[in-house]
Amino acid sequence: MIELSNVSKTYGSGAKAVHALKNVHLAIPKGAIHGVIGLSGAGKSTLIRCVNLLERPTEGSVVVDGRDITRLGAAELNRARHRIGMIFQHFNLLTTRTVFDNVALPLELAGERKAAIKRRVAPLLDMVGLADKAGMYPAQLSGGQKQRVAIARALASDPQVLLCDEATSALDPQTTSAILELLRDINVKLGITILLITHEMEVVKSICHRVSLISNGELVEDADVGDFFTAPRTDLGRDFLNDFLELTPPKELTARLLEAPGEHTHPVVRLTFSGDAVSTPLISRLARECDVDVSILQAKVESIQERTLGLMIAELLGDTDQTRKAMEYLKAHQLQVEVLGHVQRDV
Ligand SMILES: Nc1ncnc2c1ncn2[C@@H]1O[C@H](COP(=O)(O)OP(=O)(O)OP(=O)(O)O)[C@@H](O)[C@H]1O
């Protein structure tokens, strides 16, 4: 449905050139919900704006529903854009128009008749749960209600694709989940393909099927959401995951962590396990089979889509041979083992 091939975007030129996107390839099938995550300035907004040509790529093609929209003339591009809805972090509603008139706007611009507009807007307001707010003005609405109006407006021209630019970033957690629920509903009921950009892993976890990670204008990961949350492939992916899961070693331990092992040190490890490993009593088996003690400092079990993910930070207490054997044992049982550092052993 959406296919970006070799897309690059450079702002400015010469010494002031900013390479916001570099050779991006991205394929999103019809009906998918795809998230793009990245740090501030990574290129998320530029990427999503290239999909409806709010930004024109410097290079590459953007194919939406089989047509390369970078090659369309002005009139054709305008028509193509009608089938690509977009919602924004700050809603972008017209303050002097009522809720009804905001939703009606794209239809008015398309030259629809009043009666047809009325027939179209009423069910849309119903769908987003604002049937009783048609005559109100944006200033009289909460943030969540404003975003619902923006969603109804984006759906007015019957789009095949909905682009969401940090659509929940200005909302509190409860309102965020209600809006995400609505987006999921729209995806299921109307079969609309959704591309969203966010810096919130919670958004990705809640509704996305796949996720891409963007860093300095490059897509560095592109994975099924379950895979990304259980086994990110890059350091940045792991940082996002650990921040989201809040699984960082306690401060007093970090202060004592040494980078390299010493004569009387033992390793502190972060263990990530999924699938069968979650329900297997691996830690007690590890203690028995490798003759080590395991001191658990933090542990957490998360449900991500249909999969369970376990995380743990632990000290492995034993001599060098025992702890090495313990790490091999864990890896052999499909756990990811990351050595966070080493702490001095009490002797
Ligand atoms: N119109 C512009 N002119 C020049 N540089 C720009 C322009 N828009 C974005 N940039 C630069 O391009 C890079 C990517 O910006 P972009 O807004 O796409 O990132 P982002 O990931 O969406 O960031 P944020 O999460 O902070 O919104 C940044 O270095 C930014 O400063």
What's the layout of helices and strands?
Blueprint: E1 2-11, E2 18-28, E3 33-38, H1 44-51, E4 59-64, E5 67-68, H2 74-82, E6 84-88, H3 99-109, H4 114-127, H5 143-156, E7 161-165, H6 173-190, E8 193-198, H7 201-207, E9 210-215, E10 218-224, H8 225-230, H9 235-245, H10 251-256, E11 265-274, H11 276-279, H12 282-290, E12 293-304, E13 307-317, H13 320-332, E14 336-344
Parallel strand pairs: 3-8, 3-9, 6-7, 7-8
Antiparallel strand pairs: 1-2, 1-4, 4-5, 9-10, 11-13, 11-14, 12-13
Helix pairs in contact: 3-4, 3-5, 4-5, 5-6, 12-13
The protein binds adenosine-5'-triphosphate.
Adenosine-5'-triphosphate (ATP) binds next to β2 and α1.
Q: Find the structural class using helix and strand composition.
A: alpha/beta
What name does CATH use for the topology of the largest domain?
Rossmann fold
Give Rg in angstroms. 25 Å
What is the CATH class designation of the largest domain? Answer: Alpha Beta
Report the strand count: 14
How are the strands ordered across the major sheet?
Answer: 6-7-8-3-9-10
Q: Provide the CATH architecture of the largest domain.
A: 3-Layer(aba) Sandwich
Structure, explained:
The chain is of the alpha/beta class. Helices cover 37% and strands 31% of the residues. The chain contains 13 helices and 14 strands. A six-stranded mixed sheet has the order 6-7-8-3-9-10, with helices on both faces. The termini are far apart. The mean pLDDT is 92. Bound molecules: adenosine-5'-triphosphate. Residues 11-12, 18, 20, 38, 40-46, 199 line the site of adenosine-5'-triphosphate.
